[in-house]
Amino acid sequence: MTSGARSELRTGALVAAALLVAGVPVAVVWRLIAPLPRLVVNTGGVFFAEQNAEYAVAADGWFAVCSATAGLVAALVVFARARHSRVGALVGLAVGGLLGSVVAWRLGMILGPGDALVTANGLDVGTRFDGPLRLSALGVLFAWPIAAVVAWFALTAGLEPPEQPGADLEDVTGPPFPVTVLRPGYAIDEVDELFRRLDGGELSAEDARAVRFSPTRLRRGYDGVSVDGALQARADAHDRSDLSRPDPAGGSVPPSPR
User: Fold this and answer.
1) Is the pTM of this model over 0.70?
2) 28: Cβ–Cβ under 8 A, 6 or more apart, which residues?
3) CA pair distance 211, 154, nearest whole angstrom
4) What are the sequence ranges of the domains in the chain?
């Protein structure tokens, strides 16, 4: 197995495990906001005190809202922290989302009231109490993985910088930097253009140091600390190159006065 495949596998496993654990807070939120059916003890047994359909739809709807929100948040976090991964992160979001949904469903039921017949045992006729929390449509378990996968594709498609026609890895003149999303960074195209001009001799080291890049936050950008460090090192290298370049009369070009 190649190192790239091991990295994808490790990323997918970590994402799936994190979403599995995330099912716990989702279960707590679902239990707190989902309405419980009202039951009543009658001589013939336990019956619904009100229309059951409304509670069943509400429980399913709130579960879908909670799990889909968790899927969106998961996609954002994974994209911000592991954007270098593609297949591993995607599979982790899909599998982990489904596992997280199952955990939230089962734990939410445990956190809710117990079995209606057990609860009604010993209660007087006419007593009303809250029934157990249930899902009537198990299809809502797929709301989490579907939301996570759709959000992942939207992020990768909408925030990836456009590919330049005819460009390949050998044509890239700017050095690679860590990419930031949802935190401050530098505009990718501006950074690449500056390094291209600096390497091509179109820009002096002093002018390069004075350049200020447009900030990014909600779109992809280069990490500012990495860019600043590389720019300073590249500009210093250009300064040393200028100092060591021989002039026509022999010797080296003296440093320009500052």
Assistant:
1) no
2) 107, 108, 111
3) 32
4) 3-159, 169-244
CA neighbours closer than 13 Å in the CB half-sphere of residue 97: 31
* Collapsed DSSP state (helix, strand, coil) of residue 221: strand
Phi-psi region of 141 (alpha: psi -120 to 50; beta: other; left: phi over 0): alpha
Show pLDDT as tens, one digit a residue, over the chain (258 residues): 676 678 888 999 999 999 999 999 999 999 989 887 776 777 766 666 666 556 768 889 999 999 999 999 999 999 888 777 778 899 999 999 999 999 999 999 888 776 665 666 767 666 776 677 888 889 999 999 999 999 998 887 755 555 444 444 434 444 478 877 667 789 888 998 988 888 888 888 888 888 999 888 666 788 888 899 888 888 888 877 766 655 555 554 455 444
Q: What span, in angstroms and rounded, lies between the C-alpha atoms of 28 and 6? A: 34
Residue 94 CA to chain centroid, in angstroms? 13
Rounded to the nearest angstrom, the gap between the alpha carbon of residue 200 and the centroid of all alpha carbons in its chain is 37
Q: What is the spatial distance between Cα 220 and Cα 236, in angstroms, rounded to a whole number?
A: 28
DSSP collapsed to 3 states, 90-129: HHHHHHHHHHHHHHHHHHHHHHCCCCHHHHHCCCCCCCEE
The DSSP output letter for 142 is G
For residue 222, give the nearest of 188, 198, 175 by alpha carbon. 188
